[in-house]
Amino acid sequence: MAAKSDVEVAAEVVPEVAAEVAEVVPEVAAEDVEPEPGLAEFVQRVQITGTRDGEKWPGIGRRVTLPIAEGRSYAALGYVTEA
């Protein structure tokens, strides 16, 4: 099974935003690994520009592991949802 593009994933998660996704950056699928204690997985709902800890933010619909409090702050703003 071929990996889905960022646009395909975004279309499933956030249909109203998917049309605005201009760049498709190839990404490697994350392994199914449980996050460390104090961390949780979240799903990107919007594209965040810039970097976090030296890494680019994942595309819309992709997962990101964050400290729970930080992730919940982003969730309150609508940037991510808990996975």
Structure overview:
The chain is of the alpha+beta class and 83 residues long. The chain has one domain (6-82). The protein has helices at residues 6-13, 15-18, 68-77; strands at residues 39-44, 51-52, 55-56, 63-67, 80-82. A hairpin with a 2-residue loop joins strand 2 (51-52) and strand 3. The chain starts with 5 loop residues before the first helix and ends with a strand.
In short:
The chain contains 3 helices and 5 strands. The protein has a 3-stranded antiparallel sheet with strand order 4-1-5, covered by helices on one side. By secondary structure, the protein is of the alpha+beta class.
Proportion in β-strands: 15-25%
Rounded average pLDDT: 77
* Class of secondary structure makeup: alpha+beta
**How many separate domains?**
1
Most strands sheet: 3 strands, antiparallel
List the helices and strands and how they pair.
Blueprint: H1 6-13, H2 15-18, E1 39-44, E2 51-52, E3 55-56, E4 63-67, H3 68-77, E5 80-82
Salient structural properties:
83 residues, 27% helix, 5 strands, 3 helices, globular, alpha+beta, two-stranded antiparallel ribbon, 3-stranded antiparallel sheet, single chain
